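[Q] Does anyone have a clean structure-token version of this?
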Amino acid sequence: MSQTSVYILWAAAILIFGIVEGITVQLVSVWFVIGAIAALIASFCGAGFLTQVIIFVAVSVAALIITRPLVKKFIKPKIQSTNADRCIGQTGVVCERIDNLAATGQVKVKGSVWTARSGTGACIEEGTLVKIERIEGVKVIVNTLEKE
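[A] Here you go.
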């Protein structure tokens, strides 16, 4: 392979990986762009093709390892707390008998009435104090409070 062909190969790799990166906007090939740039520089310095390929792979992997934690930090979705989350851990009162099999049950917590299901699967009678364990969709999952 002629030296000009190698330059064209690495320039094309840079271009293709750059276009893929631009299209996906997911940081999937930016590391290969960096590796291809390093390989192109190595080819300008007179390195053999095998050495260029090794440099391409090594620099791409190194760039991925070095930048991945930073990328994850910036791309990590921010979980927005909602008012419903404030109910978790709160005490509520069963205002309609909770029966998971019959798909019935309601709990009043912080002035709002929620459809409720038992976390253990056991029926919970009206008037029982319960703790809100989690929210699944529009239902609160509750467990009875332990008597102290």
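[Q] Thanks! Anything notable?
[A] DSSP finds three helices and five strands in the chain.
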